[in-house]
């Protein structure tokens, strides 16, 4: 896990969620590591919120989040704690994808 500043996100093509701190954010961090093998996950903990990023693309699967939370989870419940995000977003019933269609 690496720490980065938000100012670097634009230059590094970092994408991913900005979450309200709590159990879901912790689960998302772990899910990001598991669902994006071979990618470095950057975590910028600002106490009240946490930026979670990877380079170019991040995919999170409902099943992985459920395993990390230890309970059922609906992907649209992510919006409750999702303060913001970097990149573009595609969401479905079983996954969410943060990405850039063009690289800077």
Plain-language structure description:
The protein has 104 residues and is an alpha+beta fold. It has one domain: Monooxygenase component MmoB/DmpM (Phenol Hydroxylase P2 Protein), CATH 3.90.56. It is 31% helix and 36% strand. It is built from 4 helices and 7 strands. The chain has helices at residues 6-12, 23-35, 62-69, 78-81; strands spanning 14-20, 42-45, 49-55, 57-61, 82-86, 88-91, 95-99. A 4-stranded antiparallel beta sheet has the order 2-3-1-5, with helices on both faces. Strands 4-7-6 form a 3-stranded antiparallel beta sheet. The chain is globular and about 35 Å long.
Q: Features of this protein?
A:
31% helix, Phenol Hydroxylase P2 Protein, 4 helices, 7 strands, 104 residues, three-stranded antiparallel β-sheet, four-stranded antiparallel β-sheet, globular, alpha+beta
Q: What is the gist of this entry?
A:
The protein is of the alpha+beta class and 104 residues long.
């Amino acid at each position: 896990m690496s720490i980065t500043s938000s100012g670097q996100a634009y230059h590094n093509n970092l994408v991913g969620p900005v979450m309200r701190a709590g159990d879901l954010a912790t689960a998302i961090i772990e899910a990001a590591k598991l669902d994006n093998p071979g990618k470095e996950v950057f975590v910028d903990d600002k106490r009240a919120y946490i930026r979670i990023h990877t380079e170019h693309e991040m995919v999170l699967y409902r099943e992985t989040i459920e395993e990390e939370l230890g309970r059922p989870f609906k992907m649209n419940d992510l919006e409750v704690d999702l303060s913001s995000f970097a990149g573009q977003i595609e969401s479905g019933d079983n996954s969410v994808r943060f990405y850039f269609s063009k690289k800077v």
